[in-house]
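Subject: design request, 248 residues
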């Protein structure tokens, strides 16, 4: 919203050079590349009146005799300001898609509280989800401008092209396994698995691990009350043997 407000201010000034602009804000955050320079240029060219307010004292809009009046408490000046405006422009926030909660459950991917999708790691894997084969770009990630969206889309397409060009995908070898003799079919592991790799066999009432989906995180192993879920090459017996060998 901040970048849009700055852009609109410049556009209005270009169309109406004599216009006097007021920019009311709680906080101005210019996050994109060169956005700080863009904001500085807007201040030099447009010279708007910047008025900062708090969330608990929002501007009040009234209409008197067909004219628009905006009353706001400027926290920098510590005084109430009334503005008579010919045009009132509201910059609304962008929200995530309403289908995000449903889709993240289907694809087993992460999203934040605003229904924007979350990457696997902001620094190491900014275009990937934790689930392999699904990539992230554009406003599905968070609100961003066109250059950032294009750059991220190109990166996501490049990431998706890698397994396609290779023709094969390497999977995690150290995965969870289920001891059918000890599994009680309680289903705890199926609800906790972040990748949807564990399912309950309705016929046998036993947990079953889909190898290609399992990432070896160990969540189901730690949660299993009967010890039926074990990590391949890291079973309880193997870990105990390692500890005993270390003390010998």
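Subject: RE: design request

Done. Sequence follows.
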């Amino acid at each position: 919203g901040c970048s849009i407000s700055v852009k609109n201010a410049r556009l209005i000034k270009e169309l109406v050079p004599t216009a006097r602009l007021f920019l009311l804000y709680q906080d101005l955050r210019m996050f994109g590349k060169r956005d700080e320079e863009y904001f500085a240029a807007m201040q030099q060219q447009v010279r708007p009146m910047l008025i900062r307010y708090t969330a608990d004292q929002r501007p009040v809009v009234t209409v008197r005799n067909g004219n628009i009046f905006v009353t706001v408490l400027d926290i920098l000046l510590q005084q109430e300001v009334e503005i008579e405006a010919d045009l009132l422009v509201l910059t609304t926030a962008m929200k995530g898609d309403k289908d995000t909660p449903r889709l993240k459950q289907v694809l087993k991917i992460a999203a934040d509280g605003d229904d924007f999708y979350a990457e696997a790691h902001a620094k190491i894997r900014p275009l990937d989800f934790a689930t392999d084969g699904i990539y992230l770009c554009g406003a599905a990630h968070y609100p961003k401008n066109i250059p950032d969206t294009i750059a991220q889309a190109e990166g996501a397409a490049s990431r998706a092209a890698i397994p396609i060009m290779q023709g094969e995908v390497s999977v995690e070898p150290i995965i969870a396994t289920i001891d059918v003799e000890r599994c009680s079919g309680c289903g705890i592991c199926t609800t906790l698995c972040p990748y949807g790799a564990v399912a309950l066999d309705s016929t046998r009432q036993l947990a079953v691990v889909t190898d290609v989906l399992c990432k070896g995180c160990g969540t189901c192993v730690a949660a299993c009350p009967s010890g039926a879920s074990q990590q391949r090459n890291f079973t309880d017996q193997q870990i105990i043997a390692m500890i005993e060998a270390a003390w010998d």
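The helical segments are 2-15, 35-46, 100-107, 146-166, 188-192, 219-223, 236-247.
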